[in-house]
């Protein structure tokens, strides 16, 4: 393949050895190696395996229509997109520089490859040759620069890319740092960072990072759908239906590189938020593929003889006290003893069983997942209800009534109920409040004590940076700890995941000691589809790569 | 008669004004505006971002000014954006204020506004969705009215007979079962693998384009069952009353066959009361479709109302309210006028 590197990052070779020695599993190895600029095929080569992928392509027939059940929020400027479903609708024509794969690897798309220097401060991006926009323009390094500039514009309300690419943003001007990105020639860019950042490439794969044309006006991306992808939108009715069709006038670069696209037409239909309606949809043969199967419906769908696919993810539910929230003039969760007591009163394995029917892995209250490359194994959190009560008494909060708020939706509600039950078993007073989505998301970051669903990021440091660094927009726990911030800063400068995990061990311990969150489990996600559908396997970040979808011949 | 109708229209407009102002006031409460900003901008915006988002789009004006703008009696806002462009109610966003932009753009000018959920003109959405609900309602009426009248007449013919008791029990059961109960039961029994009958489809999404017996029967029967029992009870009561009248007794004593007594002498008189009830069912149906359309994921008027309300889509909600007011009041107007024709003892003026 054309993107195979001439130079292989030394750390990647080291990781390959680690994998061969049985220290890390294949998924971890792939995430580590591909983030360092090694192509997936080369990465597989390093460990003496062959890349999967094309085998399935041979079975898919050319053409056909696929009907998918998915919620359809209105499209918006990709960089402010707040739901994976928005990106799944636009993915047919707006592509990404890099794509996160099911197996944890990062695959170059509009980039052909990248190289990182040893301390992750200089990135050299190679733009793929022969890519054209569907209006005929050639795709060049200028386009990449244009998009990075857009992503770094912190002035745009709700632009979450600016947070992801924080090292590239000038805090003074709130724009892309002057001179940080240099166009070397038509197909090469060099990014020089003021400080090391290992998350850059993974951020390019995140769903708001869709690459738009220079003429894009930040409005409805379907209004004038100039993109590099093989499909075009033909109908976009928010909350009702989105239809994309094969763009016959556009020669797509990916056909010869990765194969596909196979389908002529893909229809997304919105069946609301009730899983019973999704079941009815696939039972009545109105759709061929569901977006996600949840809770008790997984078993029911299995019994219908549908194909099931699951993905191990770092998706999770976090039940967190907000340390700065005020209730009746006091801050109940400012005291670490109170927070730690709440965590101590909960047995995470029970929460997994009751809240999510055991469909996942037990987590350890620090929001770093074993599938993250830098995960460090530390002691599991202590379960000690009596100790919890003692701690609360010491803090003078034994009689306080906690109000646990959650979203009115399947596992969030069930898990929060289980948390409340365990707290009550420990003698702690808890009141439950369940809010509908329209109300809940208004204040999600401000509730004193509530449960929030978090989707995964490929690297462990990424969520920590988004959700627990002082003053971050998404910091819902109100956690502001200098030691944590500086440790994280340090971790984010180490390209080598093995070395990084030494610091991660300290960070993880700190998270537990401070009682920042109760994090009961890592969710596995499931998806059901008809046996004839190909390429529809569940993806850890819910991405639907439309060019991979097909119907069996 | 003309004066009567004119007066009714006057009341209709007054009611619509009052109701829309109430809806407008509620949807413009601060938390609702915040919700709007977050669904439109980004669900995870900070408070400062929300404030500037709202201010840039004219949501921070006085409520009466905003209501006047919606009505079209106050000039639409024009606000300079932080990036130097202009945003106005009547011309969206532009580098400079366009020359041909109207000063007023509200309901009076025929501009019903823009739906923030569906990203389309309110008028177009309401037309489309009302059409779909119209289709549903038509079939509901086709099923409900004849079956209810037959049940009611049969039951009321001989009050207290076994037939009467049997039919009355059925109608009481159907009318006492709300749609959200009967709908779920019907789906479970007739559409799911749980029971295994699978005669019909448990969702009506495909019925929007291509309604078949299979995909449309369940939503229709769910609404129809509920209304049917009610109308049947009314018809029965009215029929029973008529059957006790002197002239019916006379006819029977004269030896007229019972069948003819019912069809020729009793029926027309007995149908006056049900007519009003049937007309009053229209507003009730609007109510029922909210539940049934959501349950069966049939994207009609009721479903639109739910979407608009849960996303605080101000202008769409206002449009929905106006339409609802007109549907309710026009059906009442028709029932009043129809009454005059059915019952010669009543005059309107």
TrEMBL record, chain A:
Top-level taxon: Bacteria
Subcellular location: Periplasm
Keyword Amino-acid biosynthesis: no
Predominant localisation class: periplasm
Residue ranges of every copy of the Solute-binding protein family domain listed in the record: 106-457
Keywords per UniProt: Signal, Transport
GO molecular function: peptide transmembrane transporter activity
Xref: Pfam families: SBP_bac_5
GO-annotated cellular components: ATP-binding cassette (ABC) transporter complex; outer membrane-bounded periplasmic space
Gene3D superfamilies named among the record's database cross-references: Dipeptide-binding Protein, Domain 3, Periplasmic binding protein-like II
GO biological process assignments: peptide transport
InterPro entries the UniProt entry points to: Peptide/Ni-bd, SBP_5, SBP_5_dom, TAT_signal
Keyword Secreted in annotation: no
Family matches, as PANTHER family: OLIGOPEPTIDE-BINDING PROTEIN APPA (PTHR30290:SF9), PERIPLASMIC BINDING COMPONENT OF ABC TRANSPORTER (PTHR30290)
Recorded family membership: Belongs to the bacterial solute-binding protein 5 family.
Name under which the protein is recorded: ABC transporter substrate-binding protein
UniProtKB/TrEMBL annotation, chain B:
InterPro entries given in the database record: MetI-like, MetI-like_sf
Topological relation to the membrane, as annotated: Multi-pass membrane protein
Keywords: Cell membrane, Membrane, Transmembrane, Transmembrane helix, Transport
Gene3D superfamilies linked to this entry: MetI-like (1.10.3720.10)
Chain ranges passing through the membrane: 9-30, 136-157, 178-196, 216-233, 271-296, 316-342
Annotated localization: Cell membrane
GO CC, one annotated term: plasma membrane
Main location: membrane
Domain ABC transmembrane type-1: 130-335
Similarity field: Belongs to the binding-protein-dependent transport system permease family.
Protein name (database record): ABC transporter permease
